[in-house]
């Protein structure tokens, strides 16, 4: 099983690739996170093992 950071990066890269292939496919993610949230690709926490996006 891949770790949280690698999983987050893999999902982000998949979304970017999909958007590059089909500009009608869009997604969003928050840039400004709450206290304790990871701020690299998506908002979420490694401890809780979640991150979120909107399609």
Structural write-up:
There is one protein chain. This protein is of the alpha+beta class and 55 residues long. It has one domain. The chain contains 1 helix and 2 strands. The chain has one helix at residues 4-21, and strands spanning 43-45, 50-52. A hairpin with a 4-residue loop joins strand 1 (43-45) and strand 2 (50-52). The radius of gyration is 12 Å and the shape is flat.
Features:
1 helix; 55 residues; 33% helix; alpha+beta; 2 strands; flat; two-stranded antiparallel sheet
Explain briefly what this protein structure is.
The protein is α+β, with helices and mostly antiparallel strands and 55 residues long. It has one helix and two strands.
What is the 3D form?
A: flat
Q: Can you write the helix and strand succession as a string?
A: HEE
Number of discrete domains:
1
Which structural class best describes the helix and strand composition?
Answer: alpha+beta
- The percentage of residues in β strands lies in 5-15%
Strand order of the largest sheet: 1-2
What's the main sheet like? 2 strands, antiparallel
Rg value:
12 Å
């Amino acid at each position: 099983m891949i770790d949280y950071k690698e999983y987050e990066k893999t999902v982000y890269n998949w979304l970017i690739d999909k958007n590059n292939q089909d500009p009608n496919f869009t997604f969003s993610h928050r840039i400004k996170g709450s206290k304790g949230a990871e701020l690299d690709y998506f908002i979420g926490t490694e401890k809780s093992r979640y991150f979120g996006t909107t399609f």
